[in-house]
């Protein structure tokens, strides 16, 4: 079994859990922002939906340079658009992961801005941290947004207050 095959079950689990959170969104609170420094629900959902695209950027290239490719957030206006984009990106990421070789997964990838290198890690570590851990982090934030807006918070790694005994 190669490295990408080992990562696929974890990727599937995290993307399925993320989809459960996205399914609880409501455009009624897309403008909600818990703090002036926080993203709105819409911005956070849009960001989460694009994170799976990073798998292809990591596997297909050796770096991301924000100086030559500045980040421009996407702006979906509806829950349906967010989920459709997320689902499409998950499918594409899984296809790329399924055919990735160990050589590619172990090759270095760098995040930088011009001459400033933030980090260089093997691609497998970048996928685990910048894709999986990153989406888990933002998914947890979105769970707080859901709770504050009195929406259902799905279970992630065990029951939530809204899904008692789902894991029992």
The main pleated sheet reads as:
3 strands, mixed
Secondary-structure class: mainly alpha
In the predicted model, the low-confidence regions spanning at least 5 consecutive residues are none
What is the helix tally? Answer: 6
Strand proportion, as a percent range, falls in: 5-15%
Q: Averaged pLDDT, please? A: 94
Output the strand order for the largest sheet. 1-2-3
Broad shape: globular
Topology pattern, helix = H, strand = E: HHHEHHEEH
Kindly, what is the distance between the CA atoms of the first and last residues, rounded to a whole number of angstroms? 32 Å
Keywords:
globular, 168 residues, 54% helix, mainly alpha, 10% strand, 6 helices
Description:
This protein has 168 residues and is mainly alpha-helical. Helices cover 54% and strands 10% of the residues. The protein has helices spanning 3-23, 41-50, 53-60, 79-99, 102-106, 123-148, and strands spanning 63-65, 108-113, 116-122. The chain has a three-stranded mixed beta sheet. α1 (3-23) runs parallel beside α6, α2 (41-50) runs parallel beside α4 (79-99) and α3 runs antiparallel to α6 (123-148). It is globular and about 45 Å long.
List the helices and strands and how they pair.
Elements: H1 3-23, H2 41-50, H3 53-60, E1 63-65, H4 79-99, H5 102-106, E2 108-113, E3 116-122, H6 123-148
Parallel strand pairs: 1-2
Antiparallel strand pairs: 2-3
Helix pairs in contact: 1-4, 1-6, 2-4, 2-6, 3-4, 3-6
Please sum up the structure shown:
The chain has 168 residues and is mainly α. The protein is built from six helices and three strands; from the N terminus they run αααβααββα.
């Amino acid at each position: 079994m190669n490295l990408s095959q080992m990562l696929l079950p974890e990727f599937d689990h995290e993307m399925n859990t993320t989809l459960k959170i996205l399914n609880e969104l409501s455009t009624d609170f897309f403008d909600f922002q818990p703090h002036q420094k926080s993203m709105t629900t819409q911005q956070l959902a849009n960001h989460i939906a694009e994170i799976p695209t990073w798998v292809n950027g990591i596997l297909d290239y050796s770096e991301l340079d924000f100086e030559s490719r500045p980040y421009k957030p996407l702006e979906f206006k509806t829950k349906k658009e967010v989920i459709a984009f997320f689902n499409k990106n998950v499918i594409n990421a899984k296809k790329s992961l399924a055919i990735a070789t160990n050589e590619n997964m172990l090759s270095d990838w760098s995040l930088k801005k011009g001459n400033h290198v933030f980090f260089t890690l093997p691609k497998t570590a970048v996928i685990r941290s910048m894709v999986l851990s990153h989406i888990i982090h933002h998914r947890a934030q979105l769970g707080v947004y859901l709770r504050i807006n009195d929406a259902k918070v799905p279970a992630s790694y065990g029951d939530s207050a809204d899904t008692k005994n789902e894991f029992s």
